[in-house]
């Protein structure tokens, strides 16, 4: 958005339309950020799964937690004031992922949270992107669940069947970006990308408003259970915790206090995988496959 915007104006725009583009906010840092991205990608252990547990060999989850310097983005001076303006003091850092994207990304939201809780994604792109080359596209206002317009916007994912047009022709706003820009969007916002090349480098941070009510605590624990890789056993990576300053801990502490159920979920995943291996081995021995 325009550099003359106040925090209040940025928040008002974000609340109304569900996204925000910050021009050049990390321009002075983009060289080291790009170098750290390449090192994380080169040396990081691929999860082999998406947050939902489905195969995806080209994702690194968590991402910024793999590099000490990338961890500083959680409370980076150029971002923290803006994020606290959107989420409130002591916002929660939940997770991150990074990958070189390839091809189209179909229309989807990252969540279905009603207005008692707020989760958003901070996206940092390391290559120049336009509408024609894979820039993020959003449907403004599609975050305002349970509004009927926001519900209807979810039909974008079925545009060929419903309207006879490809998803790339759905009315939207394309968020052209240059390295150093930051894109922020509500998890409910319908978004996608079309026409990109085979290596669009980007990574994201997932953040949420600090939970206060029992209902918001329930949402936080549901978020952790659904989005955080259960094989990890905890939300944050070792480097994130080892190098955390008192200020950064403000953004980690509530999540740490509510991640205990991950161990049980991890045990379920391990047991399910073990049972699947045994079933396959039994089928091989019996000659059924």
Question: Can you offer a commentary on this structure?
Answer:
Helix 1 crosses helix 4 (77-87). The chain has a single domain (7-258), classed as Sandwich (Jelly Rolls). It is built from 11 helices and 9 strands. The chain is of the alpha+beta class and 289 residues long. The protein has helices spanning 7-17, 30-43, 68-71, 77-87, 148-153, 159-163, 214-227, 238-242, 246-249, 253-257, 261-286, and strands spanning 19-22, 92-101, 105-108, 119-125, 137-138, 173-174, 182-186, 191-193, 200-208. The strands form 2 sheets. A 5-stranded antiparallel β-sheet has the order 1-7-4-9-2. Residues 46-57 have low confidence and may be disordered. The chain starts with 6 loop residues before the first helix and ends with a helix.
Q: Superfamily at the CATH H level?
A: q2cbj1_9rhob like domain
* Number of DSSP E strands: 9
pLDDT below 50 for ≥5 consecutive residues: which ranges?
46-57
In CATH terms, what is the architecture? Sandwich
CATH class membership: Mainly Beta
Distance between the termini: 58 Å
User: How would the global form be characterised?
Assistant: globular
Beta fraction:
15-25%
The helix/strand order is HEHHHEEEEHHEEEEHHHHH
Task: Look up the CATH topology.
Answer: Jelly Rolls
Mind summarizing the main beta sheet? 5 strands, antiparallel
Mean pLDDT: 87
Radius of gyration: 20 Å
State the helical fraction.
Answer: 25-40%
The helix count comes to: 11
Strands across the major sheet, in which order? Answer: 1-7-4-9-2
